[in-house]
Amino acid sequence: MERDNYSDDEIKSILSLKNIAVVGISRDPNKDAHIVPRYLMENGYNIIPVNPSADQILGRKAYKSLKDVPDDVRIDLVDVFRPSDQVLPIVKEAIEKGVKAIWLQLGIYNREAVEEARRHGIKVVYNRCMMQEHKRLYVWKR
């Protein structure tokens, strides 16, 4: 699977966005969809859990969908842990929320969703792991 063509500086710019709604975050501490947001939270990010079957994850209130996140809760970036064929409706909700970027985790890509987001001026990272990119650009370079 291909991935986006952002430069390291562009990825750093996207990683500078600190209010992240994680769609598909897991309660299971052994799953990547829990490990990655926990890592991000431990590294200064404000994580907003989005999972229809949880009331709370990582000690934070969980919302059923992006549209259920109150308007006074700022979302800069949406990190997606859902199958590729489920991405388009998430992207449409993210557009309505006025996010600056969408991050589709490793193995996730939906051409129509990427094009829709870009039409609205939203950057889309795809087929990359936020945790791996953060470690590569900030931790391993120390």
UniProtKB/TrEMBL annotation:
SUPFAM superfamilies noted in UniProt:
NAD(P)-binding Rossmann-fold domains
* Domain CoA-binding: residue ranges: 14-108
Instruction: Name one matching Pfam family.
Output: CoA_binding_2
What protein name is recorded for this chain? Answer: Putative CoA-binding domain protein
Recall the taxonomic lineage recorded for the source organism: Archaea, Nitrososphaerota, Nitrososphaeria, Candidatus Nitrosocaldales, Candidatus Nitrosocaldaceae
